[in-house]
Amino acid sequence: MPGFVKPLARKAVEKMAEEHGMKKVTEEIALKVKAKYLGIEDDKNKKKIAIVRCDIVSEVCPGIGCLQAYENSKELFERYAGKDTALIGFFTCGGCSGRRTFRLANNLKRYGVDVIHMSSCMLMEEPFNRCIFKEDVNYPSLNPRVLRQGLADASSELIRRY
Q1: 60-64, 72-76, 113-117, 126-130 — which is least confidently predicted?
Q2: What does the pLDDT read at residue 158?
Q3: Same domain membership, residue 10 and residue 30
Q4: Are 64 and 26 members of one domain?
Q5: Which residues partner with 63 through β-bridges?
Q6: Cα 129 from Cα 126, distance rounded (Å)
Q7: In a shared domain, residues 28 and 99
Q8: Are residues 124 and 87 in the same domain?
Q9: Full residue range of the structural domain in which residue 18 is found
Q10: pTM for this entry
Q11: Residue 119 gets which letter from DSSP?
Q12: Which of these, 32, 14, 33, lies nearest to 24 by C-alpha position?
């Protein structure tokens, strides 16, 4: 946690404890504050999804194709249509070699991520070069699993437009 966040977090925890009439901070209060500010929901039935995308492509792509495909349950997100899902992560690989992916995937495990989709920009030939490190990013030891399919042809079409 960045240093500047710690005093803010402490203040939020103490305030909630006070609002609940408690003189001491309990673990329960701390977890409630964490859930409130990190958007962590207690619903265990939600399918928690993350998307990893190319760091280089992120310089020119705001991720609209991936986010719209998720939001509208299109393309490979059709499998989640009508299901209770939450997009809990949207991050870049960290640059060639995908060095950041493994670390962030492990961090997402703490928040119950079920699946991490690789974006189209990492897997398709056009409009960008296919990621030559996709096999490294798709760590076989990762649980949750990383889906190697691209998100959507439509996503790359949207990328082309922007």
Answers
A1: 126-130
A2: 29
A3: yes
A4: no
A5: none
A6: 6
A7: no
A8: yes
A9: 5-38
A10: 0.64
A11: P
A12: 14
Supply the mean pLDDT for the chain: 75
**Other C-beta atoms lying within 10 Å of the C-beta of residue 108:** 21
**Same domain, yes or no, for 63 and 127?**
yes
Q: Look up the CATH number of the domain holding residue 100.
A: 3.40.50
pLDDT at 162: 25
Q: Are strands 145-147 and 47-53 parallel, antiparallel or unpaired?
A: unpaired
* Angstrom distance (rounded) from CA 14 to CA 12: 6
Extended strands (E) in 39-84: 47-53
Q: Counting beta carbons within 10 angstroms of the beta carbon of residue 139, is it exposed (0 to 12), middle (13 to 18) or buried (19 or more)?
A: middle
For the record, the structure tokens of 103 come out as 């670390």
Please state the domain count of the chain: 2
Q: How many CB atoms lie within 10 A of CB 106?
A: 13
Co-location of 116 and 135 in the same domain: yes
